[in-house]
Each structure stands twice: as C-alpha cells, then as structure tokens.
Design goal:
Blueprint lengths: L2 E7 L1 H18 L5 E7 L3 H9 L5 E10 L10 E5 L9 E9 L3 H11 L5 E9 L12 E5 L5 E2 L15 E6 L1
Parallel strand pairs: 2-3, 2-5, 5-6, 6-7
Antiparallel strand pairs: 1-9, 3-4, 8-9
Helix pairs in contact: 1-2
Bound molecules: inosinic acid and magnesium ion (MG).
Inosinic acid binds next to strand 5, helix 3 and strand 8.
C-alpha cells in the first residue's frame, strides 16, 4: 500500500503561528517562570520551537503516556510510560501537546497534574480536531483547528514515521 502526504499547513504557516503563540504566552506569563511539560514524543518538535520564542524564564520537563489503540485511533486507556522528573507543586505549568483529538489522553493527564498542586495549569496544543472530541478538554492556546483527517509531521507520526516533516501533512493510502 503506497502512502501519500499532502501539505495541510506549510512550514512557514506553522512557524508564524508558533511565533504568535510564543509572544502571547510571554505576555500572559509576564513576571513569572513558565514550567513547560512536553508530552512525548509528539509534542517534542512543537515544544522546542515554542520554547525558543518565549521570553519569560522557562523550565522544562517531559512525560510519556500511551493511549492504546490502532495506529490511527486512540482507545481511551491511558498509561504513564515515563513520569515527570520533578514535582510541579507551586509551579506555573503549561502542558505542550501535539494534538487534541478525542480529548481522552489530555483530560486524564490534566486531572492527574491538577492533583499535584501546581500554582496554575494550562494547556497548549499545536493542533485541535474539535469534531472528534469525546471528552471535553479546556484548551488555553491552540495553533490550528483542523478537520477530521489523520495528520503527520511536526512531531506527529503514522506508525512512528513522518515526525520529522517540517510541515503538517494529511496522509492517505492507496
Ligand atoms: P486523544 O486522546 O484521542 O485526544 O489522542 C491524542 C493522541 O492521539 C495524540 O497525542 C496523538 O499521539 C494521537 N493522534 C490523534 N490524532 C492524530 C493524527 O491525526 N495524527 C497523528 N497522531 C494523532
Ligand atoms: Mg501523542
């Protein structure tokens, strides 16, 4: 089966939007330190580009969760593969994700992090597929709302490939 990737959001469009979000975050967190939590692996490309554009002090931590399912659908069962290195109590935490799809992964994750007592807890996602939402998730910063299509690039994978594409593409098969 041949795989094809069609550009949905160009490298320039994505970079410009990340610049704008970085500026917004820098304004919103003025006088504070923002603690960015990257959800591996998908959020890593976005996190790096976003962090470079934030002008307030930044600290980082990483966690890895898996939602079991096929390559293109999440099942709603979330498992922590790698937890954070440091406590988040009293910190201004901003979770950085690649995409909010059904919302299952993020709703679980945000509840879990809230229980750890951060000073504040917000969510930033590069992509949002609102049509696919099953569980309500409060998103504070969104890069782009996209239609219900399976996308790759900028950290997003199909079967662990295509994460390194510098743009967002829609994958199709024939
Ligand atoms: P949710 O729990 O359904 O919101 O799914 C979250 C996870 O599913 C994301 O962090 C991605 O890893 C994966 N995912 C959802 N949609 C896509 C897509 O279009 N391309 C690649 N991965 C996706
Ligand atoms: Mg993911």
């Amino acid at each position: 089966m041949a795989e094809h990737v069609r550009v949905l959001l160009s490298e320039k469009e994505v970079d410009d939007r990340i610049q704008a979000i970085g500026e917004q975050i820098s304004r919103d967190y003025a006088g504070k330190q923002v603690h960015l939590i990257c959800v591996l692996k998908g959020g890593s490309f976005f996190l790096c580009e976003l962090a470079k554009r934030i002008t307030v002090p930044v600290s980082l931590d990483f966690m890895s969760v898996s939602s079991y399912g096929s390559e293109t659908k999440s099942s709603g069962v979330v498992k922590i593969i790698k937890d954070l290195d440091d406590p988040i109590k009293g910190k201004d935490v901003l979770v950085v994700e690649d995409i909010v799809d059904s919302g299952r992964t993020l709703s679980y994750l945000m509840e879990m992090l809230k229980d750890r007592g951060p000073a504040s807890l917000k969510l930033c996602t590069l992509l949002d597929k609102p049509d696919r939402r099953v569980i309500d998730v409060n998103v504070d910063y969104t890069g782009f709302e996209i239609p219900d299509e399976f996308v790759v690039g900028y950290g997003l994978d199909y079967d662990q490939r295509y994460r390194n594409l510098p743009y967002i593409g829609v994958i199709s098969f024939d």
